[in-house]
Amino acid sequence: MQAYRAAIFHPLDDPTTAEGPAHAFHADGLLLVEDGVVVACGAYADLADRLADTPVEAFPGRLITPGFVDTHIHFPQADIIAAHGAQLLDWLEQHTFPAEAAFADPAHAADAAAFFLGQLLRNGTTSALVFGSVHKASVEALFEAALARNMRLIAGKVLMDRHAPPGLCDTVETSRADMLDLIARWHGRGRLGYAVTPRFAISCSDAQLAMAGEVLAQHPGVWLQTHLSENPREIAETAALFPETADYLNVYERFGLVGDRSVFAHGVHLHGDEFERLAKAGSAIAFCPSSNLFLGSGLFDLKGACDHGVKVGIGTDVGAGTSFSVLHTLGEAYKVGQLRGTSLDPFHAFYLATLGGARALNLGDKIGNLEAGKEADFLVLDLAATPLLARRMPLAASLEDKLFALTVLGDDRVVERTYVAGVERHRR
Ligand code: GUN
Ligand code: ZN
Q: Cβ atoms within 10 A of the Cβ of 370, count?
């Protein structure tokens, strides 16, 4: 058994709907872990008699939290973070597609996978739902690297058979074969999962979307991820390509892609009826505020989504997103709320980054908090990691205020250690 002593904070439920307590905080807490799983988490005084002769690793002045869950990120886009001057469709053409073309080379993909997972772990992200490039080899490289780190990671090869450079397009037949092979060899291996990944409606023919729906129906444990209603020009072009559909979401509905294992990135311009249908289907939205601000896509209606009962997680959406840090992304989510006239509550923010994200991925029974039986993905945070944090934190009047300051001022510098299934995988 392993034992860790520090202040501990973890969400227990969605604070916007919970009837009981929505989080637990132990100023002097103890976390007990065995075989990669949480055995107990509570006040040191209550659990100390269960220690027997287990050595205790103490982190005075530190805060233990669950690992972060990033519900939307692109593995092949780390190198195009901070590309100047374009909105979504031009950004894809000018920056994204050329960068993704490089992932035809397995050596480049392997090198990029090690860097990418290193960035996730140093930022405290222990689980993610990830877009690969169109190349099967890109996802293989990522799965290989994630398996070596025992991460709970879901990924898929992007499907795109039109409206992209010829070298980056697949076909219905090649993409079906690649997907089936990746599912057979990687889905359920270690903590890995496969997601059917049509890029978005513009880049997939009717036949490819129909094939994606068939593969999904034949593999009930597999996820679905795509983009939805991100940018006005994208929405207009989608409507022109699918004139017979009622709205953007209806494109995906028609092909059987909207279910309780589906995660839609963005949803910035959805209306109430689409929120309602997403909620009814049990689908989730990945809220990607840094990306939505960077590309000028718009201001996501988090309150509207939550009021309709849609599951929501946080997505960094690197490389349109500007940071791998989920903490930083929560700070951006707050600013989006301010521009819409609603202030994101810090407890709600941390819920979205952990248990909410886990539930968005249908993994709420395995990850997202530190209740007994959960997989032991957790962080040791240094709340005084920078001179500014060291000055600001002691002035925080409450836990809520501390958490809020962390989201506004924090990033990878506050993540002192990252544990994945009970094993330390990053130390600052
Ligand atoms: N829509 C289709 N592809 C992409 C992508 O790579 N990034 C973002 N932000 N939106 C997309
Ligand atoms: Zn994206």
A: 29
